[in-house]
Amino acid sequence: MAPAPIYNTQRDQVPQLLDKSGLKDTGPLVSGTYDCKEDYNGDYRFAPIEEAQVSRAMIKRYFNMMYERAISDVVIIGAGSAGLSCAYHLATSRPDLKITIIEANVAPGGGAWLGGQLMTPMVVRKPADRFLTELGVPFEDEGAFVVVRHAALFTSTVLSRVLALPNVVLMNATAVEDLIVRPDPTSQGQGQRVAGVVTNWTLVALNHDTQSCMDPNVITAPVVITATGHDGPMGAFSAKRLVSMGLLKELGNMRGLDMNRAEPAIVNGTREVAPGLIMTGMELSEHDGSNRMGPTFGAMMASGIKAAREAIRIFET
Ligand code: 48N
């Protein structure tokens, strides 16, 4: 039976939600009138503030968010190009879903800040250029593929679009340390179903051996989408965890580079690899043993969109 979404926002409300969530004046930081002046001739004056107000402004919002997101509809692990493309498509297609992105790095974006070998242009093979057009990312058309002038132009644009959506929250510098699993009710208790994630601040997760007392936080969700990439300190996290918890016999291990085989394999292979767990992006190459594609990013965008559609399928069956 499909899990019931938490919000009741309708699809047609998305345009004004997108408009409304632009950066607007948040109103006075302190009550009443205050002395401030925008004068670049030597008399620039800020409104007065107490340091505690800054801490409280952050604490209130961050911990309210943690409290509210302890129960989510969908958790996306990894804010790389696949995870962010997935978040955008899912959140705009289903504004009623409460989507929480967990990203281990302080800086989200994963490997999509550069094109390849530290060169900045980003190649995207058609038809994935349609997603760039939807986001409003300009590119140069080279026939079978397009080139975004700087990879960061794609990554910063998709990131800003995702963070402007009211049903999405990003918890960066936060690592998923484990998966929540429960007996799968649809398998007479034989199988296991992923039902959320176990998190800690990344600095704690990376130092557990010296801080074993640091118990983690948990976020429950009927659907988890994992897009943790194929390398990096925690790459292919969920694929490796499925093996260590006995839900996957062994890793397929990513094969050598072949763009023409790799990209369709990742897009078409994006799926629910375990009940409640959808895998996408380059993490899938480690799970399935598919090839890598190197510095071309269309499959990350299209597989992220595919993962979003797989999640929507779960909420609609
Ligand atoms: O960019 P990545 O690594 O992964 P994808 O799948 O979004 O994009 C892959 C793409 O950048 C390529 O690798 C390109 C196409 N090259 C291919 C090739 O042949 O070399 O993003 C994964 C994100 C990162 O930001 C990690 O920090 C994060 O996932 N992450 C985690 N976040 C939270 N908890 C974890 N356990 C975790 N593990 C990784």
From TrEMBL:
It comes from the Eukaryota. The modification 2,3-didehydroalanine (Cys) is found at C213. Substrate binds at A82, E103, A104, G111, V176, D215, H230, M282, R292, M293, G294. Binds 1 Fe cation per subunit. The keyword NAD applies. During the catalytic reaction, a sulfide is transferred from Cys-213 to a reaction intermediate, generating a dehydroalanine residue. It is found in: Cytoplasm; Nucleus. Its EC number is 2.4.2.60. Pfam families: Thi4. One of its GO terms (molecular function) is cysteine-dependent adenosine diphosphate thiazole synthase activity. Homooctamer. Involved in biosynthesis of the thiamine precursor thiazole. Catalyzes the conversion of NAD and glycine to adenosine diphosphate 5-(2-hydroxyethyl)-4-methylthiazole-2-carboxylic acid (ADT), an adenylated thiazole intermediate. The reaction includes an iron-dependent sulfide transfer from a conserved cysteine residue of the protein to a thiazole intermediate. The enzyme can only undergo a single turnover, which suggests it is a suicide enzyme. May have additional roles in adaptation to various stress conditions and in DNA damage tolerance. This is Thiamine thiazole synthase. It comes from Ganoderma sinense ZZ0214-1. The lineage of its organism: Eukaryota, Fungi, Dikarya, Basidiomycota, Agaricomycotina.
